[in-house]
Design a protein that fits this description.
This protein has 188 residues and is mainly α. Helix 2 runs antiparallel to helix 6, helix 2 packs across helix 9 and helix 8 crosses helix 9. It has 10 helices and 2 strands. A two-stranded parallel sheet has the order 1-2. The two termini are 23 Å apart. It has one domain: Orthogonal Bundle (Endonuclease III, domain 1).
């Protein structure tokens, strides 16, 4: 049996390989899942993605399944509770941003009908398929991630800089940055 060729960043950790094989770069159109990825990408700022992946289940439990309606209602007592939860990343700015982003997310849903409709309009509903042969060819930001970041900030979102947004675009399949010899590149 032939070994699957993956993007080199997937490494050999099962949790990373599973994320690479089944999620990263595959289009997501479910608002709750988009909210989860937006929060997790913000939590990842300054850290390795593997740190977030290992804490993902604890995040889901701590943040009520990433239900934006519930997260938007978090008060200072709930924030304090989260900041004592050793299973998650306990950064006050990031936790506060999750609450702020939940409120902004709900406003986008109200205005556009769904966050999905708002977000995917930037790519006319069709993923951008890049053709990188090596990881070094994949950018950290693009003019489009710059624009989305700027627009989200105007709407009140936090921890949505261009690098975070480009990672979010990759994670949610708005952009396919799998290297060309990766088996997922051919599937998407």
């Amino acid at each position: 049996m032939c070994e699957k060729i993956r993007c080199s960043w997937a490494g050999d950790l099962p949790i990373y390989m599973d994320y690479h094989d089944n999620e990263w770069g595959r289009p997501i159109h479910d608002d709750d899942k988009l909210f989860e990825m937006l929060i997790l990408e913000g939590m990842q700022a300054g850290l390795n993605w593997i740190t977030v992946l290992k804490k993902r289940e604890a995040f889901r439990e701590a943040f009520d399944g990433f239900d934006p309606g519930r997260v938007a209602l978090y008060d200072e007592a709930k924030i304090q509770e989260l900041l004592t939860n050793e299973g998650i990343i306990r950064n006050r700015l990031k936790v506060n941003a999750a609450v702020t982003n939940a409120k902004a997310f709900l406003e986008v849903q109200e205005k556009y009908g769904s966050f999905d409709r708002f977000l995917w309009a930037y790519v006319d509903g069709t993923p951008i398929k890049n053709h990188p042969e090596k990881l070094e060819e994949i950018p950290a930001t693009t003019p489009l991630s710059d624009q989305i970041s700027k627009d989200l900030k105007k709407m009140g979102f936090k921890f949505v800089g261009s690098t975070i947004i480009y990672a979010f675009m990759q994670a949610t399949g708005m952009v396919n940055d799998h290297v060309t010899d990766c088996f997922v590149y051919r599937e998407t």
